[in-house]
Amino acid sequence: MEYDEPRLSIREWAEDDRPREKLVSKGKSALSDAELLALLLRSGSRNESAVELGRRILNRVNGNLIGLSKLSLAELITFKGVGEAKAIAILAALELGRRRREAEVEERKAIVTSRDVFEFMQSNLSDIGHEEFWVLLLSRSNKIIKKIPISEGGLTGTVADPRRIFRAAVEHGCCSMILCHNHPSGNVQPSDADIKLTRKLKDAGTLLDITVLDHVICGEENFFSFADEGMM
């Protein structure tokens, strides 16, 4: 008869392999994603260490941290060994990471390239499963005056009201603006509707002396810029 070998708890691991001790001795960058997650989980279950549990959770999203950030509280607690307290700790850590990323980009303020737009808006658009349309209002020196959510829709589209967009632009005294929305599917190529809307808003901006500089479509890890593609 075969017997399963007893699993070693994390406390029984070599000290260099324990996540906490490893972080103290080698620094946070030395830890894998599963080990960092294990520190949030603090414990696993009878048959699984916290690191193994963290690895199992990450496997569900193919090791993608953006995918992990999309899991809801209800989805996280479906994992054996994850109760509400552990799930809340994970969600809180991911939200802190999102806010840090947003604050880091906001320090630069001025928009110089389409990648600046993508990085600035990524914290708002990368983790959601529906489309949202935003505008960045810019000063004459391309510094961000304000970012404004315009609308949100379903998986395949959202409606952007030109009146609301230009009302906000006039109220904040901006000189130019950048349009931005996401494609939850990950395919950042513009649809015919995206192209028509961009032309419509660009023409409206010309009449009001407010330049529409670009329209950036964001995916999880990539983006499409109308300006970069010569479509503005």
List the helices and strands and how they pair.
Blueprint: H1 19-26, H2 33-41, H3 50-60, H4 65-69, H5 73-76, H6 84-106, H7 114-125, E1 132-138, E2 144-152, H8 162-171, E3 176-182, H9 192-208, E4 211-218, E5 223-225
Helix pairs in contact: 2-3, 6-7
Would you mind describing this structure in some detail?
The protein has 232 residues and is of the alpha+beta class. Helices cover 43% and strands 15% of the residues. The chain contains 9 helices and 5 strands; from the N terminus they run αααααααββαβαββ. It has helices at residues 19-26, 33-41, 50-60, 65-69, 73-76, 84-106, 114-125, 162-171, 192-208; strands spanning 132-138, 144-152, 176-182, 211-218, 223-225. Strands 2-1-3-4-5 form a 5-stranded mixed β-sheet, with helices on both faces. Helix 2 packs across helix 3 (50-60) and helix 6 packs antiparallel against helix 7. The radius of gyration is 22 Å and the shape is elongated. The protein starts with 18 loop residues before the first helix and ends in a 7-residue tail after the last strand. Residues 1-6 have low confidence and may be disordered.
Features:
5 strands, 5-stranded mixed beta sheet, single chain, alpha+beta, 232 residues
Strand content: 5-15%
Strand order of the largest sheet: 2-1-3-4-5
Structural class of the helix and strand makeup? alpha+beta
Helix content: 40-55%
* Overall radius of gyration: 22 Å
Q: How many β-strands, per DSSP?
A: 5
Nearest-integer average pLDDT: 85
Succession of helices and strands: HHHHHHHEEHEHEE
Give me the number of helical elements: 9
Reported for the largest beta sheet, the result is: 5 strands, mixed
Q: What is the end-to-end distance? A: 73 Å
